[in-house]
Amino acid sequence: MSQGQETIPSEKKKRLLSIDALRGFDMFWILGGEKLFAAFFIITGWSFFHWGAEQMEHSVWHGFTAYDLIFPLFIFLSGVSLGIAAKPLSSYPPEKAKSILHHGFKRLALLILFGVIYNHAWGRGIPASVEDIRFASVLGRIGISWFVAALLVWYVSERTQWIVAIGILVGYWILLSFVTLGQYGGGDFTASGAINVWFDQHFLPGATYRNLPLDPEGLLSNVTSIVNALLGVFVGRYMIKHMQQPKKLISSLAMVGLLLLAAGYAWGVIFPINKTLWTSSFVLVTVGYSVLLLTLFYTLIDVMNTKLWATFFAVIGMNSIIVYLGSSLINWGYTSKSLFGGFISVAPAGWQDVILYGGMLLLQWLVLYWLYCRKIFVKV
Predict the structure, then answer these.
(1) Domain range summary for the chain, segments of one domain joined by +
(2) Cβ(77)–Cβ(313) below 8 Å
(3) How far is CA 177 from the centre of its chain?
(4) Which residue among 77, 92, 119, 246 is least crowded, i.e. fewest CB within 10 A of its CB?
(5) Is 269 exposed, middle or buried (0-12, 13-18, 19+ CB in 10 A)?
(6) What is the pTM of this model?
(7) How far apart are CA 283 and CA 260, in angstroms?
(8) What is the DSSP secondary structure assignment for residue 180, as one 8-state letter?
(9) Residue 237 CA to its chain's centroid (Å)
(10) Torsion sign over Cα 268, 65, 117, 230
(11) What 3-state class would DSSP assign to 278?
(12) How many helices (H) and strands (E) does the chain have?
């Protein structure tokens, strides 16, 4: 999935393998990697794998697990690439600036469309009534957060970008905590009483997820997800400015990540960390972990130059749109069973799931590797 690199001339691009590898590491769990923890727990009985399996489930409501990081990490990385590559449109000739803006609108529209396709969200089938279509989606949110962050990078100063990011986080906390609309809001952070429900019921077109009152990718929570991308922009911009001082860069990023985590968990005491509501505390916590992961990958891959293992994940990360859509449109479990069913049927408990999900991972990775070797990268 394109992350904004196309916004500057190719000779000025700075592509970091660590970013592609981290994006691939993020997508690895969607391919089926999350299922391996439970399988290895059955085999070994080790509490670590039991803990890992629990971390591979979304939080029921308030709280945070590792699986909750997958979505916001992807948005953050789109912002990092934007911060590395993009610059104000005023620095381009008018025709080039117009082309870049046109591409941004096109990318937003395609991601919203692909999100509908991923969700199989056309109700009882095509042709579908508008009321049956679920427009809200993960890909749609990625498109919205990236596009708004890109507009800010293209049209306003860095100072204004910071003001917008802080204003969104504080304003969202005030809105959810103190504003009441009908029977919703006023500090009610439940799935039935949060002010987000009012917005989804009044303004979200089409159907909601499982026809619930509140969609997990609903309207209002899109606003704070923009900050995940914006903070990624700030990190990417900082990285490209200090690339010649890797030790200083690494220590600074690690400190920023830790400070964001501390601030997020502290804010979570009064404004709960919640993925569905995408609360301001959730933004800070997820960006904190994202910065620490990026720091680790950057240190190991781009500074210490240990790139062999990174290529495994980069193969995934450089075709992320294929990865994500394929996980919904292709039954990889069926394919794995059809190829490895003989081994699965005679394997002991636990190992059956390892072979099944390991086969799914292998098959998907081989397809992506085939594309990678031929330099076929599907971008939006």
Answers:
(1) 5-373
(2) no
(3) 26
(4) 246
(5) exposed
(6) 0.92
(7) 9
(8) E
(9) 19
(10) positive
(11) coil
(12) 15, 2
